[in-house]
Specification:
The protein has strands spanning 4-9, 13-14, 19-28, 34-41, 56-59, 64-72, 78-88, 91-104. With 130 residues, the chain is mostly beta strands. The chain has a 5-stranded mixed β-sheet with strand order 2-8-7-4-5, with no helix packed on it. Strands 1-3-6 form a 3-stranded antiparallel β-sheet, with no helix packed on it. A hairpin with a 2-residue loop joins strand 7 (78-88) and strand 8.
Length: 130
């Protein structure tokens, strides 16, 4: 059973180039305090961009901590990945992880401008107003 739980609050879709803003919540579900090591990445699929500056945190039993995140949406689906380890007398052990995908929301295609109707096509038409 994992000592911690992860909740990622972010949109499910974002338009390329827009700022994606969200939060990552880590909670200690144990009755005792633990030191957790948290690794996070988003959204650079090639290298992974670390989004938390504080990888080591102490959480008392039942305590949670929320971290704000933001990044520019790339032109491909983005992934926010959170990996948590906890420290025991034997060293660091995997605790839990969570992945959330954010899909690219395509810009709506603009409709083409209608071709202007030449004024010569209106010759010979009469307008009746009643």
């Amino acid at each position: 059973m994992a000592f911690s739980s992860i909740v990622i609050h972010s949109p499910f879709k974002a338009t390329e180039g827009n700022m994606v803003v969200g939060q990552i919540e880590i909670k200690n579900n144990d009755s005792e305090g633990h030191t957790f090591y948290i690794k996070t990445w988003a959204p650079d699929q090639a290298q992974g961009s670390k989004i938390l500056d504080e990888p080591f945190i102490w959480l008392w039993g039942g305590e949670s901590r929320t971290f704000s995140i933001q990044f520019l949406m790339p032109g491909v689906d983005a992934e926010i990945f959170v990996w948590v380890e906890w420290y025991s007398s034997a060293g660091w052990d995997y605790d839990t992880s969570h992945l959330k995908k954010i899909t690219v929301d395509a810009l709506p295609e603009s409709e083409p401008e209608p071709e202007p109707v030449p004024s010569s096509e209106f010759r010979g038409l009469s307008v009746v107003v009643s």
